[in-house]
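Predict the 3D structure for this chain.
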Amino acid sequence: MSQNAVAALEASFKTWKERRFPEGGGKLDLHEYYCIEQFTRPYTLTDTELRSGMIGGSQDGGVDAFYILANNELVTSEYEPDPKDPPAFRVLIMQIKSDEGFSPVAIDKLNWFLRDLLDISRKKSDYHTAYRDDLIRLMRLFKDKYGLVMGDTPPLQIECIYVIKKQVKPNDDCMRSEAAVRKTVGECFKHADLDLKFINAAGLWTQVQSRPPLERTLRWALQPMQTPEGDVGLVKLKDYKAFITDPGGRVAERFFDSNVRGYWPNKDVNKSIAATLENAAKSPEFWLLNNGITILADKVDAGAYLEISIKDPQIVNGLQTSRQLFGYYEANPAESSDNRRVLVRVIKAAEDARDEIIRCTNSQNQMPPEALRGTDAIHRQIETVFLADGLYYDRRKGHHRDQGKPVSQIVDVIEVLQAMLSIVLLAPDDARARPRDYIKKDALYTSIFGEKAFPLTLYLRATQISRRVTEFLESQDLEAIHRRNIYFYLCMYAACVLSGSAYANPGKIQAIDVSGETSPLTDSFLTICYQRVWKVYEHLAEKDAEDGERDYDALAKGPNLLKALRAGLKRRFNPPKKNKK
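Done. Predicted structure below.
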């Protein structure tokens, strides 16, 4: 790697920091964040999701980042795999070093960690070393979720990425340690596929350069029909497969609109598509048997003969067809004689029209309502209100991250939902344990995002309060597990105290000055609220401990902490009336 390339990598990191963290990263290791962002691009994770897997620190088992994905969607405690249609699991583990070369000791740590992780029956007391609570939680999450479907041996990919900033290669000792890792994975799961990558400075620069381009070229098989709204025509299957393949050879996830991407694929549809692909000699032309593809674009330009350049393509209909085509041609590379075609519509649409097209073109599929929530008018309205306050509402998952907006100014839908649950609906237990129920279930969804539910400014105020609480907690010397659990309850408690009521009147919440010089959300005020919440939190955790082990996560997800805090607030603000004698 030339000195020019090393300088280019440093310049890229500097530019990235200025764009994504203009105010600094606080306690975050920004080099780690930079590397993690580069290698997780195929999965379209939000910044909140990225941070959830950053567990580097003391007792991290040599692991700096840890993510579990099922069909390329991040697995959380709410995720429930379907035993009748088990997903493909991927475990992504990253080790990131700034000032060191590749070390066999680090790989040996990874080996012991993988043995503890992949032995599903192994408990915390049997682990080779002590791990921090956040890592143990993620290990337990993998064991629980993969354990539900492992009997059907669904695909399991173990991807380990070891990143350094130096331009060196792993030595023989490293390679021997790598062989031990492969042996461990094979002993635990013979069907697992291990991909252990050693990424030096040159490899990191290559990954940085391989950012999915915002423009892609689509080649028509014949001259398409051109209309004022866009083009409609036939594309050879092999050319369409090339269109949806990212520079790393994987399906380009970012092209699939996040409103519908990855939700409950219809197995019968997939089988039908697969059958038409595999029986080419017996089936009529492919495009006659399938609905085709709809692509939305910000801009379309003419290219070479029969080619167009599409800026920011979003595939909003044809998800199953696209994935089946990709998988088929990955397993069966196209022959020169394969001239089968698929029907493609390329539509240039403004943002408001885009949402209506997404909804209508997916109406024929058996899609659950939550897959299309982001197209609801309420979310466009929230987006407008937030933008006026300098915030980017990420109703299209990953959209603003792709645009390089500052991390501190991006607000995802779940963050707003959890703020409303904690502060307005006084349901911090649901915010911690079951937020996506309020996306999936119509009645719950309407209670938050119904057209007549709340004034638009209340969504902004709740989010501002919750972010102020986050800022306060990050200044405390707290383990991540406690910041994650206390956060929702501190939001509720502070809102109730500020509104002078155990019921946190929405009108009074809207009136709270969050960022002005006279804002009551001072560190001293939040410290008092935090101490009261923490006292109850610790007391109940100790009371419910089993064999001396406190399950803080279970406490935060259950009803007891909320019940105790609400009781204290009612005693404070609604004391019982004394009986007159």
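Residues 3-209 form one domain.
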